[in-house]
Design a protein that fits this description.
By secondary structure, the protein is α/β, with parallel strands linked by helices. The protein contains 10 helices and 12 strands. It has helices at residues 39-48, 104-120, 133-140, 147-154, 187-190, 193-211, 236-251, 267-270, 281-292, 327-351; strands at residues 28-31, 54-57, 68-70, 83-87, 125-128, 161-165, 174-177, 217-221, 254-259, 275-278, 297-301, 306-310. Helix 2 crosses helix 3 (133-140). The chain starts with 27 loop residues before the first strand and ends with a helix. The model is unreliable at 1-22 (pLDDT under 50). The structure holds 1,4-dihydronicotinamide adenine dinucleotide (NAI) and the ligand NCC(=O)COP(=O)(O)O. 1,4-dihydronicotinamide adenine dinucleotide binds next to helix 3. Substrate binds at residues 147-148, 289, 298, 307.
Length: 352
């Protein structure tokens, strides 16, 4: 339940949640993602930058010259500068930019294996490298539009939301699309009061649990231009969005909106909220990828385990060329580590 209303504290440094300094390092798994994309080359780059994680994939897909060592379990130690690899053999090689349908099932298996390790307690969180949804659908009949929905299924059908969070702009931006991977023409029907309410509740709970924000301020975007202009440009805002937000405010949620989406992402506007719940994918993702493509992190809210991911995709156009930027996956590792710390702190507080 949200806390009662009161003066809005503006969190000083809320880019990532705080992590107590004296813990055992969280055991993070990085899944290989689509081997024909940039995933396999990001892992050694992140390791060279000092990140501590276990890579789950086929070592034959790593760039030649990668210094790696096989481990038996997530978190097993390896020498400094060495990539810890939990081996998962694939049937085929990685051909940059050309996904092999024969590898599709193994890409999916790697995600499921990482989740099983997290759910068994053998790992503290997972960081997923990008997948190509079409390649998985064509190669293995993957029935999910992305990790988000697949992870929710693996976790037992829990309700989830996709958040993208900046790490290198101030004020920060966190966005949650209330509808995700569907055609734009399907959005007005899919954006129901129940869907928007679920996204708001998951966002509020996620900011508390994973970002250690005790009284989250959430801005809600309208669906239509100018948030409907009082009904002149669409009626969703007046007919049901505003009444829904009023009802949730009465429960204690700190909400603003429905707001015109075109004017809610500039810096002074961002300073007024901790996360923006948006009507559809591009309304949410265009601002964050424009403001912080290098530092953006994709977080799945609502899962029983921590999952983050870079904000970018498989980047087939540059795969294998040695020019991929690892900043976003490094930010994803750091955010996952901080989220593990935030959850551990909350558990400790609850038991003391
Ligand atoms: N979490 C995931 O698994 C995600 C998967 N995807 C998938 O990725 C595939 C490709 O999607 P696109 O829309 O083309 O987006 P993309 O992010 O793969 O590429 C967009 C542009 O950004 C560049 N780029 C991306 N990441 C980069 C990096 N780390 N360093 C340097 N340049 C980088 C690419 O070269 C390309 O020019 C699609 O199949 C999509 O579904 C997209 C986003 C997330
Ligand atoms: N556009 C964001 C995206 O595709 C990420 O999807 P997911 O694989 O994390 O569900």
């Amino acid at each position: 339940m949200p806390s009662s209303a009161g003066p809005d504290p503006v969190p000083a440094a809320n880019l990532v949640p705080p992590r107590p300094p004296d813990r055992t390092p969280p055991r993070l798994i990085m899944t290989c993602g689509e081997p024909a994309g940039i995933g396999p080359e990001l892992a050694p780059l992140a390791r060279a930058a000092g990140e501590d994680f276990t890579w789950l994939g086929d070592p034959a897909h790593l760039p030649s010259g990668t210094n790696w060592a096989e481990v038996a379990a997530p978190g097993d130690r390896v020498p400094p500068g060495t990539l810890a690899v939990l081996r998962h053999d694939f049937p085929g090689p990685a051909l940059p930019g050309r996904p092999d349908p024969a590898n599709a099932a193994a890409v999916i298996d790697v995600i499921a294996r990482a989740v099983a390790l997290a759910q068994s307690g053998a790992a503290d969180g997972i960081v997923t490298a990008p997948i190509n949804k079409l390649a998985l659908k064509q190669g293995a009949g993957f029935a999910f539009p992305g990790h988000t929905e697949y992870l929710a299924e693996l976790a037992g059908g829990v309700p989830v939301a996709m958040m993208l969070a900046s790490t290198s702009v101030e004020p920060p931006l966190r966005v949650v699309p209330a509808t995700i991977h569907i055609a734009l023409s399907e959005v007005p029907a899919a954006l129901t009061p129940d869907a928007l309410e679920a996204a708001i509740r998951l966002t509020d709970a996620g900011l508390r649990r994973d970002f250690a924000l005790p009284r989250p301020r959430i801005a809600v975007a309208g669906l239509n231009p100018h948030a409907g202009e009082g009904g002149a440009m669409g009626r969703a805002e007046v007919d049901w969005m505003a009444p829904l937000l009023d009802r949730l405010r009465a429960e204690g949620f700190d909400l603003t909106g429905p707001l015109p989406a075109d004017t809610m992402f500039h810096a002074p506007a961002r300073a007024r909220y901790d996360a923006a719940v948006c009507a559809y994918h591009d309304q949410a993702l265009i601002p964050i990828k424009t403001l912080d493509f290098a530092g953006g992190v994709n977080v799945t809210l609502g899962l029983p385990f921590v999952r983050t991911s870079p904000d970018h995709g498989t980047a087939f156009d540059i795969a294998g060329q040695g020019c991929a930027d690892a900043a976003s996956i490094i930010a994803a590792l750091r955010m996952a580590r901080a989220m593990v710390g935030a959850r551990a702190s909350a558990r400790e507080s609850a038991t003391t």
